[in-house]
Design goal:
- Chain A: One of its GO terms (biological process) is phosphorelay signal transduction system.
- The complex is a heterodimer of chains A (about 120) and B (about 900).
- Helix content of chain A is about 45%, strand content about 20%.
- With about 120 residues, chain A is an alpha/beta fold.
- Chain A has one domain: 3-Layer(aba) Sandwich (Rossmann fold).
- In chain A, the strands form two sheets. Chain A has a five-stranded parallel beta sheet with strand order 2-1-3-6-7, sandwiched between helices.
- Chain B folds into six domains: about 160 residues, Orthogonal Bundle (Arp2/3 complex 21 kDa subunit ARPC3), CATH 1.10.1760.20; about 230 residues, no CATH class; about 30 residues; about 110 residues, PAS domain (Beta-Lactamase), CATH 3.30.450.20; about 80 residues, Signal transduction histidine kinase, dimerisation/phosphotransfer (DHp) domain (Helix Hairpins, Orthogonal Bundle); about 150 residues, Histidine kinase-like ATPase, C-terminal domain (Heat Shock Protein 90, 2-Layer Sandwich), CATH 3.30.565.
- In chain B, helix 7 packs across helix 8 and helix 8 packs antiparallel against helix 12.
- The longest helix of chain B is centred in the N-terminal third of the chain and has 70 residues.
- The radius of gyration of chain B is 68 Å and the shape is rod-shaped.
Chain lengths: ~120, ~900
């Protein structure tokens, strides 16, 4: 069984599940999670995760806080962050780039668009 | 006064005239025939109070009294002329005018009448002239004083005919004249009366004394004569001869030469003659019957030297008869001369029973009065002293007073029926009195002249003071010290008056300043053109009758209509846009009947035919007594405001829609995202099923889902841009480069649609600050709209080749990129809604209706704008963006 390479965080579990299923169906092992805590747990167990896709605006916590928290907790992991959000301001782009976000996808994101964004990140490893 | 007494001026004139007539008849005599008449006071009062005509009537009546008093019309005429002269309109005060009258007209007229016609002496004439003048001026002064007092006490009210105000000068003149003249008249009256009474008394006493003395002496003489004649008769009866009788008569000093004795009726003997011849003379034969001594005219001697028969009856020793002698007037005169003493300025005369002068003795006295005195004496009218003078026009004229005498007659003398008459001349006394009166009047007139000068000076001072006062006040300012000239500060009253005037003036200045500011503000407000103020009155009950329609002059400026072109409310209503008119009228009627105030907006036609939007505010007052209500209000051209407001509303609408759309987009994003991947997963799952189970329908439906997802996603992503979900990152853009890029995209698209496409841009480049994709998106959207418009036209059957021009224009501050087509153009309705979100003219499904609104939003965000115009052959859209210099970007 292939190791999980992509973790998806979206406060709506339907989106997280469907996106993960789509990626998994196309040979990219992914798990969709709907709370940051769950994602952190999974990340701690799964060594092979390379890409984290996160929403920006979620109840209780912003996507950037979450990214910052991951980076603090897992300083040694080489992770690529992709933002997938319905609203991305130029300030968000600026802040994201400083945190090492490699791509910004505006919802609604077409399935192929997501694949195009993630595949290069996995291949680069 | 409960009720004002009203009579016509004519009746007042008659009333005053009658009062004046009565007062003139009750004259104040100055004693020497000079009278002060004060009746004309009423006439001049009538002039003051009721007007000139009224006074003329009064003077005509009152002055006519002089005709009765003096028996000549001259005074009457002169007084009427005087009245006419004095009451002329003039700056000179009435009393002063009267002085002028008497100097120039009155005195010459009096000299003419009294001097030449009546023959008056100079002194009397002088007195008359002075008296008349003083009397006339006094009348006017008294009338004026009376009038002023009543006027200032408000007991009489100014009438339309009479005097309504009193001048200072007139008051001062009257005051001074009254101060001088009235005491003069009173003094004249009292002193003259006293002097005349003294004169009169003295003269009477003199007359009486002279008469009594003469009587006594005469009686003595007669007694002695009778004794002598008795002695002679006795001697004759005793037998004395003629020589003895003569000797005896000489010794007794009888004064007569001849004596006759009659002892029988026809026997008369001349006892003093030597012959003692009997005399037979029928004329003297009847003396025998005399029982008492008597003097009788000798019959037959009436003419020439008169002779008298003096008869003395006797009874001596039983014998009786009469003794008589014949005497001539010269004999009587001799007796008178011997018997009486006559002082100077007096005369004594003997009158016989027929009133004829028998003898006269006088001392320095003229004699023209004798005949008159004789007449009076024989009529028994001189029993007490009587002043006797010349009659002029049938009455004793005062002017002849100096030539008159005071006469007194005795009772018939003993032994005769003669009378003694004593006369004393008044000339000296009267003349002296008149001199005094003339002197007094001269003094008064001299003082009057001084008084007139003082009056003029005082009134001039008054004028100067008021002039100084006005000057000082006019020069004064709202604050700051005012130094009044000495002429004002010298008098307490004028100083107080100045202080009060100053305070009033300062208050006035303050209020004027406020008023000026107010006026300035109102002028500024009124000068602003868009506002038109109007007012009119309307009567609901009279079928909405409108009156007094007025508008501010600004109306012509704002709407172009002159007052003649819009003279009433109706013609204004007629110029309201037909779509608005009904509502405006309904609103106006409702306002007038109920609310009292209204604000309405409507379109109205200007003179140039253009409609402008106005706001009209009206306030309606409560109905007045005549049923009319005031309506005031203003209208204002708000066309510009209206346009701006529409833009604002549009912007607000767009903004609201944008926010709503952004919110909606976000909410839809999530489910859409889930659906997107769910559909992809579904397709994947289906494809893994056995082929027999996969019907074409299933795949078709999945594709349909995917297609609809794409469509929804496209809309959502557009809405996101429109709602500024993603702010534009700007960069410095070369307009020419952008245009080239757009041309590359547009050309193939136009080629496909068989549309000629051309690009025009200047060689010199220009720069804008924007995101290239955004500009491209806007322009491409415009080009695609243009293509569709040409397509629509062609579909409608117009096969004219399509053409789209992309042009770049520049101003110093802006860059203009325009897209022009020869399509259908844009209808008015569509033009208004052009930039509204979701507005589209395209068939459902072929356009979101967001293209132009998004473009508008982007352009606005870039600090620019998009506008659209119909060119006649199609439409032209222009994107306007601020131009930036390369260096500053």
């Amino acid at each position: 069984m292939k190791e999980v390479e992509v973790l998806l965080l979206d406060d709506e579990i339907e989106i997280a599940d469907e996106v993960a299923d789509y990626l998994s169906g196309r040979g990219v092992k992914a798990i969709g999670l709907f709370t940051p805590a769950m994602l952190e747990d999974e990340l701690g167990r799964m060594e092979k995760v390379r890409v984290v896709v996160t929403d920006l605006r979620m109840p209780g916590r912003s996507g950037f806080d979450f990214i910052r928290s991951i980076k603090e907790k897992f300083p040694d992991r080489r992770l690529s962050f992709v933002v997938m959000s319905g609203f991305i301001s130029p300030e968000d782009v600026e802040a994201g780039r400083q945190l090492g976000v490699v791509d910004f996808l505006r919802k609604p994101v077409a399935p192929q668009e997501l694949m195009d964004a993630i595949l290069p990140l996995l291949r680069g490893s | 006064m409960v009720k004002r007494l009203t009579l016509s001026p004519i009746l007042w004139g008659v009333l005053c005239g009658c009062l004046g007539f009565a007062a003139n008849m009750a004259r104040f005599s100055l004693g020497t025939g000079v009278d002060i008449l004060l009746g004309n006071v009423f006439s001049y009062f009538a002039f003051r109070a009721f007007g000139r005509r009224s006074g003329l009537i009064a003077i005509t009546i009152s002055a006519s009294a002089t005709v009765l008093l003096w028996n000549h019309p001259f005074a009457w005429i002169i007084w009427i002329v005087e009245y006419v002269f004095v009451t002329r309109r003039s700056k000179i005060a009435a009393p002063a005018r009267d002085v002028i009258f008497w100097s120039l007209i009155g005195a010459p007229a009096l000299f003419l009448f009294y001097g030449l016609i009546m023959g008056m002496d100079l002194l009397s004439m002088l007195l008359v002239v002075l008296k008349q003048g003083a009397n006339g001026v006094a009348n006017i002064v008294i009338a004026d004083v009376l009038f002023f007092v009543l006027f200032t006490r408000r007991w009489i009210h100014p009438t339309e005919h009479g005097v309504s105000s009193i001048s200072l000068r007139e008051s001062v003149v009257v005051l001074f004249f009254s101060l001088v003249l009235l005491p003069t008249v009173v003094a004249l009256w009292t002193t003259s009366r006293g002097a005349y009474e003294r004169l009169s008394d003295e003269s009477q006493q003199t007359t009486m004394r002279v008469l009594r003395e003469a009587e006594v002496r005469y009686n003595d003489l007669v007694d002695r004569y009778f004794q002598n004649i008795r002695a002679l008769t006795q001697a004759y009866l005793d037998g004395a001869d003629g020589a003895q009788i003569r000797e005896m008569a000489r010794t007794l000093n009888t004064g007569f030469e001849r004596f006759y004795v009659q002892v029988k009726p026809d026997h008369i003997v001349d006892i003093a003659s030597s012959t003692r011849a009997e005399i037979h003379d029928e004329r003297i034969a009847d003396t025998f019957q005399y029982k008492f001594p008597a003097m009788r005219p000798l019959p037959g001697t009436e003419g020439g030297a008169r002779k008298f028969q003096w008869v003395v009856p006797f009874e001596i020793g039983g014998r009786h008869g009469v003794t008589f002698t014949i005497v001539s007037t010269s004999d009587i005169q001799r007796i008178l001369d011997a018997a009486t003493f006559v002082q100077s300025n007096s005369a004594l005369m003997v009158l016989d029973a027929d009133g004829k002068v028998v003898a006269l003795k006088r001392n320095a006295i003229e004699g023209h009065w004798e005949q008159r005195v004789a007449e009076l004496a024989s009529a028994n009218q001189l029993l007490s002293p009587v002043r006797v003078g010349k009659l002029i026009f049938g009455v004793p004229a005062m002017v002849m007073e100096s030539e008159s005498v005071l006469a007194l007659a005795s009772a018939p003398l003993k032994g005769t029926n003669w009378r003694l008459v004593s006369a004393v001349s008044l000339e000296k006394g009267v003349t002296s009195l008149r001199r005094q009166q003339v002197f007094l009047l001269f003094q008064a007139i001299a003082i009057l002249n001084l008084a007139a000068l003082v009056a003029v000076s005082v009134s001039r001072t008054g004028r100067e003071i008021s002039g100084d006062l006005i000057n000082a006040i006019e020069k004064s300012t709202e604050s700051g010290a005012v130094v009044f000239p000495k002429s004002i500060t010298r008098f307490g009253e004028t100083r107080d008056m100045a202080a009060r005037l100053l305070s009033v003036h300062r208050k006035f200045l303050r209020e004027k300043r406020e008023l000026d500011r107010e006026r300035w503000r109102i002028e500024q407000i009124a000068a602003e053109p868009p506002l038109v103020i109007y007012a009119y009155e309307v009567n609901i009950d009279a079928g909405y009758r409108v009156a007094h329609f007025q508008t501010s002059p600004s109306r012509q400026k704002v709407y172009g209509w002159t007052p003649d072109e819009v003279p009433n409310v109706g013609s204004w209503l007629d110029r309201i846009h037909p779509d608005d008119k009904e509502a405006v009228i309904a609103n106006l009627l409702k306002t007038i009947e109920k609310d009292g105030r209204s604000i309405s907006e409507y379109r109205v036609k200007k003179k140039n035919g253009e409609y402008v939007w106005v706001v009209d505010c009206a306030i309606v007052g409560a109905p007045a007594e005549n049923g009319f209500r005031d309506v005031i209000g203003f209208s204002m051209d708000i066309t510009e405001l209206k346009v701006m407001r529409e833009k604002l509303v549009q912007a607000a609408k767009l903004s609201t829609l944008g926010e709503m759309a952004a919110g909606l987009a976000h909410e839809i994003n999530q489910p859409l995202q889930a659906i997107t991947f769910a559909a992809a997963n579904l397709k994947y799952d289906v494809k893994k099923l056995p082929e027999t189970e996969i019907t074409p329908k299933i795949l078709q439906r999945i594709e349909r889902i995917e297609h609809q997802i794409d469509r929804a996603s496209e809309i959502i992503s557009h809405v996101g841009i429109f709602g500024r979900a993603t702010p534009i990152a700007r960069e410095l853009l070369s307009v020419n480069a952008v245009i080239d890029a757009i041309a590359a995209l547009a050309r193939p698209m136009c080629l496909d649609a068989a549309i000629y496409f051309d690009v025009k841009h200047p060689d010199e480049d220009a720069f804008v600050s924007a995101q290239q994709v955004m500009v491209e998106q806007i322009i491409m959207n415009l080009i695609s709209n243009a293509r569709d418009a040409i397509g629509d036209r062609k579909k409608a059957g117009d096969e004219t080749p399509g053409q789209i021009s992309l042009q770049v224009g520049r101003t110093p501050s802006e860059v203009l990129i325009s897209v022009e087509d020869n399509g259908t153009g844009i209808s008015d309705d569509n033009m208004r809604r052009l930039f509204e979100p979701f507005f589209t003219t395209k068939a459902p499904g072929s356009g979101t209706g967001l293209g132009l609104s998004i473009s508008f939003g982007i352009a606005t965000e870039l600090g620019g704008a998009i506008n659209a115009v119909n060119t006649g052959g199609g439409a032209r859209f222009t994107l306007i963006m601020p131009r930036v210099q390369r260096a500053t970007a």
